[in-house]
Prior knowledge:
Layout: E1 3-5, E2 8-11, E3 15-19, E4 22-26, E5 32-36, E6 43-47, E7 50-51, E8 56-60, E9 63-68, E10 71-77, E11 82-85, E12 93-95, E13 100-102, E14 105-107, E15 111-113, E16 117-121, E17 126-130
Parallel strand pairs: 2-15, 3-16
Antiparallel strand pairs: 1-2, 3-4, 4-5, 5-6, 6-7, 8-9, 9-10, 10-11, 11-12, 12-13, 13-14, 16-17
Amino acid sequence: MNLNMGGQRFEDVKIPLIWGKRAILEDNTGLISIILLDGTKAVLEVLGNEPAPNIQYEVIEDGFKVIHNGQELYSFDKERRVIKGLSQKLPECEIQSGGIRIGSNILSRKKATGFGVGVAVYEQRIVMGNSLPEGLARLVV
């Protein structure tokens, strides 16, 4: 996959940005989609800044919360393009026009080429240019 996202260039990567077990993608109009890759089948949770069909969610002041089995997983602020873990203990992620903010770190004007994952966000670390983690559903775009 080749795409620009948050001021970054991702070339020949399978997943540009993975937040825990969720792929985060930006389309060419700047809209964000989030896809859960945990298990055997990928599940679309956010499509073009809106809750995907068949996803349980709750509207909040600045966007919505994604809920699964009664548990609030994360919130998505569609104006600021911020993903914030609720029951997930992952750093907040903001897709800015000139960079990607992960917690207090800002990645700007970087290029990732030929990796399974361009940027991987975990609870305790951020990895640039990583192999594809095992056990993820296949992401097909």
